[in-house]
Write a structure and sequence with these properties.
CATH class: Alpha Beta
Low-confidence stretches: 71-76
Structural class: alpha+beta
Shape: globular
CATH architecture: Alpha-Beta Complex
Largest sheet: 5 strands, antiparallel
Distance between the termini: 54 Å
Number of helices: 4
Helix content: 25-40%
Number of strands: 8
């Protein structure tokens, strides 16, 4: 296993269409997946696509931890909103609802920036694991967002290309400051409502 260099916006590997993997169980695929996992964890990412590590194959990895589920309100919904570390080879996405929502996204290939990106809220995806097993899951919320983001990489699309308004593309430091101000305002509103 090795930590790979991550391609940055502007590199041709990020603009191309990734090739289908002919044998998902091949040892070379397992080695690439192991490197991708190590690279994603090292970079503190939620997902990674093979083209981001200069490999033009249709492979993505991602995770959607419970703390990112946000809008999931009950036990039944939490499974659609979360996902363990998942490897998808030759993934396919089916949009289940025309409903979209804007949400903040970042990308290891677009470091230091965040953007408000509209994404479908409800999808189904399928793909193959390195063990040759088929995975098929429904995803909503952040889970759906991260899958769509990573699969976009396989078609040469970076998240700024999905944005409606490039005025909503900001530096990460500004996004953190904006979020802190919003949280402080919400806390003040709660205190005022509680009569403090």
């Amino acid at each position: 296993m090795a930590i790979r260099k991550i391609a940055r916006m502007g590199h041709p590997v990020l603009r191309g269409i990734a090739r289908p993997v002919p044998d998902p169980t091949a040892p070379a695929v397992r080695a690439l997946v192991a490197d991708m996992i190590e690279t994603m964890i090292d970079a503190n990412g939620a997902g990674l696509a093979a083209p981001q590590v200069y490999e033009p194959w249709r492979i993505v990895i991602f995770q959607a931890p419970a703390e990112r589920a946000g809008e999931a309100v009950d036990e039944a919904e939490i499974f659609d909103h979360t996902a363990p570390l998942t490897v998808l080879i030759n993934p396919e996405i089916e949009i289940l609802s025309g409903e979209t929502e804007k949400g903040w996204e970042g990308c290891l290939s677009v470091p230091g920036l965040r953007g408000l990106v509209p994404r479908s809220l409800d999808i189904r995806y399928r793909g193959v694991t390195p063990d040759g097993e088929t995975i098929e899951r429904r995803a909503r919320g952040f889970h759906a967002r991260v899958v769509q983001h990573e699969c976009d990489h396989l078609d040469g699309i970076l998240y700024p290309q999905r944005m409606d308004d490039l005025g909503e593309l900001i530096f990460e430091s500004e996004a953190r400051a904006m979020l802190a101000a919003q949280m402080e305002a919400q806390e003040t509103e709660r205190d005022d409502a509680d009569g403090r």
